[in-house]
UniProtKB/TrEMBL annotation:
Taxonomic superkingdom: Bacteria
Name this protein carries in UniProt: DUF2087 domain-containing protein
Provenance organism: Streptomyces omiyaensis
Pfam family, one: DUF2087
InterPro entries: DUF2087
Region (Disordered): 83-103
Ranges for domain DUF2087: 19-88
Amino acid sequence: MSSHPSPRPVADLFSADGRLLAIPRRPARREALLAHLTETLFDFGRVYREPEVDAALKTVHDDHAALRRYLVVGGFLARTKDGSAYHRQQTPPAPGGAAPAAA
């Protein structure tokens, strides 16, 4: 038997109508949520304007600004210097926020 519980699926963070119940405080749970949101809301190779990012995030939670900030700080979305455009990162961040080693 493993001493570590298996990670819970992100599905339990959402209500039956698909709304996020709360943004997890625990970094590992939040990272799993952010990875899920990135996968389901944003396409590779597409540039999103800030209102588009906010509109997508508002479909799951009212605090879209916090989610957007977490996505950028966590490395899931990249933002232009002027903050006007966003795009999905090609490589998801390594667990724990560590930069992946160069191959």
